[in-house]
């Protein structure tokens, strides 16, 4: 299997959103919740202007993607700077092949390139074991009215 990592472009959006849809539909949530929330996860051309989006091409198709943006200081561990991992999705038919790990490493490398301390992850419940297996630090909830419960920190 030939794998290429690259920055996403507008022409990738249909394939990117296909990967996102297939991934979201595997989540252990009621079908109605998945259908109603799916539009919020899809990427648009506007998103490509605000987020850094990387795709993985495998066998001439998009197998996964990750996107990140600068994180808000209030969300980060005290005194740290970092990126917010906005999304990490791997096509369900191509999971467990290291693609997600490579995308996570790419976000970490990008944080280092920018001179930042790490990457903040707000994990979806079904993805939490993926981040736990990689030894990421789970952040405590400091403010229940503001903090996302499943936050992880990945040092750059």
Automatic annotation (TrEMBL):
PROSITE patterns: GNAT
Coiled-coil stretches noted in the UniProt entry, renumbered to this chain: none
Every N-acetyltransferase domain range: 3-156
InterPro entries the record matches: Acyl_CoA_acyltransferase (IPR016181), Bact_Acetyltransf (IPR050832), GNAT_dom (IPR000182)
Keyword terms, alphabetized: Acyltransferase, Transferase
Top-level taxonomic group: Bacteria
Pfam families on file: Acetyltransf_7
GO molecular function: acyltransferase activity, transferring groups other than amino-acyl groups
Protein name listed in UniProt: GCN5-related N-acetyltransferase
